[in-house]
Amino acid sequence: MESDSPPKQSARRRIAIDNPEFGFGNIESWANIIRSYRERHPEHQVILLYEGEPVHGTTYLFKLGKAVKRDAFELIVSAPDQNFKDLPKLFRLLADGAGPDYQRFLVRELHKVLHLF
Questions:
Q1: CA-closest candidate to residue 101, choices 20, 26, 40, 44
Q2: Angle at alpha carbon of residue 101, lines to 95 and 105, rounded to 5°
Q3: Integer distance in angstroms from the first to the last C-alpha of the chain?
């Protein structure tokens, strides 16, 4: 009989935002980066926290707008297969997406997924 053990979660990692112009473009780049990760690991759950509370969709982030606290974001990944090998890259890409060079994560085609992983 198989055990129904809960998926393993990664440790919380703070995403420091060094970009004073952090805004909607950065949020859209985060959505594209997470979508790319989920395409590669569909069984994983990417949990973005803001001030300790889960962010439920990018709409929440758009509502925050420019009033975000730069040190309030954290990342957790829940993985039933316990395969966290792409987690460092996800974290690094999210940090890059929060920066001023976020445009490279924006796609012009609707429903296109970036192949980052």
A1: 26
A2: 75
A3: 34
Q: Is residue 81 part of a domain?
A: yes
Q: Counting every residue, how long is the chain?
A: 117
Per-residue pLDDT reduced to its tens digit, 31-70: 999 999 999 999 999 999 999 989 887 777 777 666 778 7
Say how many domains are in the chain.
1
CATH number at residue 80: 3.30.1340.10
Q: What is the pLDDT of residue 2?
A: 53
Q: Please choose, from the candidates 109, 86, 85, the residue with its C-alpha nearest in 3D space to the C-alpha of residue 37.
A: 86
**Long-range CB pairs of 9-13, under 8 A, 24+ apart, other chains included:** 9/76, 9/77, 9/78, 9/79, 10/75, 10/76, 10/77, 10/78, 10/79, 10/84, 10/87, 11/76, 12/49, 12/74, 12/75, 12/76, 13/74, 13/75, 13/76, 13/91
Question: In angstroms, rounded to a whole number, what is the distance separating the alpha carbons of residues 104 and 109?
Answer: 13
Q: How far is CA 29 from CA 10, 11, 20, 34, 101, in A?
A: 22, 23, 16, 9, 10
